[in-house]
Fold these 2 entries.
Entry 1:
Amino acid sequence: MFFDLNFPVQRISSLQTASKKGKQPQQAEAVPTFLPSQISAIEARVDLLIHLGYSVIAFSQTLNKKIDPKTHVNFLDGLLVQLRSRSGIVYLKRLNIILDRDSEKGFGLINANLSLFNSYDLIALIPTTHTTFSLACLTHSLPSPLTAHIIALPLTLPRLPYHLKHTLVRTAIKNGAVFEINYVGSLGGENDATLADANAAESGSSAKRNWWAATRELVRVTKGKGLIISGGVVAEADLRAPRDVANLIAILGLAQDAAHEASTKAPRSLVVRAQTRKTYRAVLSEPTLVVPFDHTHSTLESSQVAPESTANAMSAKSSLDNSIPQKRLRDMSGTVLDEVASTVPGLSQKKKRKRDQKADKLVT
């Protein structure tokens, strides 16, 4: 089972309701509309991904501003309703948030907006500054209802806007986050329009060169751990099969089995961990039936069994006593006492003398 967890959906036209006075539109939720041509284009890309061998596809919505609960709209819900169902294919919803300098003070990923994020299966952060990269690795990767399990780096920029520190990367991987590699940059293909407008991605031959240098550095810092490979492809001509992508990533110095797991095992584990956002304290386990112990019933059973067990114990004791020969002392002479004392092990000389003195007193 192969995963493509980054299927960009272009921004769509929205209808805003005007106020009665006609001065400004009301701050109401925009009504997302998909044209039939847009639906057919998305259907064609999905069919091609399925033909290439992908089974799990995550449709992504990208934001380049602070999340406002009054204006934010999850248009992926309406998209999945219009797409035709396919047997054996899983659709996921993903939210990409671009973090710039304005996002250092906050970008809306708070508990007050929890209801907005619960409709998404995956949350990904795209940091473009050193401060936002530190926040993504140290703070937003911790288990919580708002955990961002994917950190996507702007690999196609001329130079990464921050240094990949080992401590930050290891902490993010330890917390359960993964670093995403979109192979569209290796082809110099077209990126999401929202990323291009936010200066978080580039296209062309220069972007291809930048991608190879930045991705090699990412593989070196992570040592091949905590990586997933996604598409991020907008044009159908840039789509590639999973085996071709694994061979492409292996050129960066990643082992062949690790490159294969980056498209199969690692994304599957990521999807399972992402479900912990909706569980208590991010705990995901199978329920176990525990039968309570009935003390009253056990007491009654013990009272019923007690007489029988006592009688059996007494009969066993009597038979044991009969089997042991008993030596009877017929008189208080020393010879008999010496014979009995000799059978007692560990009797010291001092105790023997005391015993003899007591015997002499009794005889006299």
Entry 2:
Amino acid sequence: MLQGHPPLINMAEDLVPQQQLVLLRKRPRHCDHSKEVDDIVVEILSRLPVKSLLRFRSVCKSWRALISDFYFVKKHLGHAFTDTSYSFRLVFLNARPRTVDLQGLEVHDHIRQQDSFAEDILGRSRILGSCNGIICLQEMMFDGIYRDDIFIWNPSTRATQKVPKHKFTKGSRRFYGFGYDANTEDYKLIVGDSNHVAEETKFGIFTLKTGSWRTVEDFQFVNLDGQGCFANGALHWLDSKYNFTRIMSFDLAKEKCEQLCRIVCGTMFTMGIGSNRNCLCYYTYSSIRSMPMTIWVMSEYGKDKPWTKLMNIPTHIVPYKVSLRPTQILENGEVLMILDGKECVVYNPKENKYRTIFQTSAIFRRSPVVLYLDTIVSPEFGSLNM
């Protein structure tokens, strides 16, 4: 997903690499219900939608145990990412939270009201990150001022868990992100701040398995801001401290922050980063309407690896005034974008036209859009079914 600077947004999925998802470990021999459930039943259940699985938990104790089992959750997650019948959804957080079904959007515009969580909280939250169907939110008191309350939420199962308060949950921390550590098979929330006077940066790390916080301080000073983009097992931010822009990465397994690459795009350009099918991307556009928005992709991830131009989008045909934010590249090549924080449009590169999906009078706040997939991943701390 594409993030801006100041934080724009997301363009594709903040996903665990697909190869990590489909390499499912064998069912443990000691699994209590392994003798009760036939492998064929497991295979069938693992391909069913979340709503069906939530109902089938009431069939019997063995099915309830199976559907909550670590092995089964990973198997279902693997099918969700590889089965084309599953559809990604975008959640828009504004005065009236709503979701957009991306699969339906390619055929016809399909929007439905979001009712999976208390709407008054959704309408007063910013998104800290999203991964594998669970979303991290922070509740807002009023514009730009946030409460200590952070929630981990699965919109598909409606399960919600409140993160314990910590010094890093207080106030409006400058940068944050949420992702998956494949080495420990754990989800991590990262929040941090930089002291410009002392030139020091501190990270707070919360892990779902332990349900606890810890602080890491031995980092070089970095000027990060907003929501980090998750791709290839790391969170990424833009750092414009110097006369050029650099992309900083925070490896969730190594818990190490370092420069990934430098990009020189000129002062007249606005820049954002994101991911497309787990490949890191960045885009630039100018206030000069004759210059197109350009989207670049790093096909082979790594330090100072080359970038490939993905597409140009002519901006003179799109009626924005201040900001233009690509959100998602659909399977049919169309691009979902946010104009001036209050209008959602789809650009068709073949016809060189756009169509409006919806408009709102309320300006979208920071990180107002997130992509998710229906999964049964649990947000509960200490849970083994992640």
